[in-house]
Amino acid sequence: MITVRELIAVGGFDENAILAGDAFLEKELLGVTSFDSPDGHRWLRQGEFVLTTGFPFLSQTETIEAGLIQLIDSLADIGTPGLAIKLGRYIESLPFAVIEHAAQKQMPILSFPMEKAWSDVIVPVVRYIVDKQRSELEQTHAIYERFHRHLTIGAPVCQLAKLLQEALNAPVTIYSPSHRWNWTSPFSELSQSIAWIERQCGHPAPPAIMNQPLVLLENGSYLRWVLCGQQIQGGILIDGLHRDLHSWEKVAIEQSAALLSLEMQRQQTVNETYQRFRNDFLQWLVSGHAGPRGVVTRRAQEVGWELDDHYFAVLLRADVSSQTTMTSWQENHSLLELINRYFSKTPQRILSGLDRDNHLLLLVPFAEQQAPHADSEIFALLQQALLSTGEMPAVSIGIGRRHLGWEGISESYREAQISLRTAFHTNDHTHTMGGHLPLRMQSYRDLALERILFAEQPNVEARVLAEECLSKIVQYDAEKNGQLLQTLHVFIQANGNHVDAAKSLFVHKNTIKYRLQLIRDLTGLHPENGQDQLLFRIALTVHAVGRHS
């Protein structure tokens, strides 16, 4: 295709040939034809430029002005890019009303020289179109050859920005945050556009982008969205063109986008395979049978991880209405991809995967001197990660306590499992994020009776609870010949009444308070607190049953 402006030059029109519509000379045309019959426009094709003497508009029933206006309307409806009239033969000049109407209809009108024949314009224009098409075909073939050679020699995708820049002779940037691609050719300055692309990445592509992924931006640059499946994963930015693209230039852009999408699919396949190995490693690590430190380190390196000294476990599950195995896996796998994509842009060294129940498992590193109850940081981090995407189902989160060393990972994981079941089955810790995403979180340290109710083996969890609550008390009594365990039992039997407990033990109530303070120092639990008192009551019952048995 050529423009009306090119037709003026190729057809040998005079510089003053433009009679109307000079603002629309960039309209494209497919060919040139002529007619001199009143209904000749009926056989025109869209995109044909018209040559005429003006004879059809001589009528006894209407003026030349009305006839031309009617013709312009008919040609505009057909999609005619413009027309040229032989002035001086039947029409001396173009009426001003016709010039105005042509501008409204975006219809360029030229003055056709009296001395020229139709063929003096049609032949060179057709030849020019054919030559241009041949040139574009050759350019397109050359583009296909260059990209085919790039593919067959196994050149890395990071060279596509340079290859595309050479083909378009314009600065190019290829950007994909999830794949950590930020490849630029020289003189590329599109930082603001990159920030905009990053906000769109990871979201489903709307129908408009699926149908037309190449977009002309307001600043005159072009953006070709790069899709993987039906998700936006990045973009190709072309700066400095400020014009329509040639067909071979569009081919170059599409070839680049196709190769990038293929690379994304390849990496996705590799990552999914890699993730399965990571899932197996995590399950092995939380099982409590990981083995010697050297073996654990070597296996971690095999899946690309470098381990920290201490971790606590966090479990997440997408709360979907249909809890079939496949639906649950798909939702939790999507949740894993979201979390991994978010963490890839942060300095966090969190280990992530799916456990045997297809729940999202995170092992979060912590420092030995870190506060044992600092769960707010991981909650805020997960909140930001979940808010970084579009619509997501409700999510339940269970957090285990911090235990030192790799040996403590299995214990923290067991606690996270109990916390997750508690969060899913209760609504006491529900948070609404962004007004649409309920987030149910439960920390193990906040549990009381739920520790036993939601445990896989309640009897085992009860014994663990008794050990945690009473072991230091029993040890203190044995070493110091104390009476802390008896005092705690009596105090709880007295429903937390210091005076009644003192009477039962024949001591002053301040002695009771002193002994309870020792218990607080040893266990971190407060016998006067209702929830901790419940834990002590359960622990004492289990301890008594175990002692008798």
Automatic annotation (TrEMBL):
Segments forming a coiled coil: none
Domain named CdaR GGDEF-like: residues: 293-421
Highest taxon in the source lineage: Bacteria
Record Pfam families: GGDEF_2, HTH_30, PucR
Gene3D superfamilies given in the database record: PucR C-terminal helix-turn-helix domain
Domain Purine catabolism PurC-like: 8-129
Domain PucR C-terminal helix-turn-helix: 484-541
Family: Belongs to the CdaR family.
Full protein name: PucR family transcriptional regulator
Taxonomic source organism: Brevibacillus nitrificans
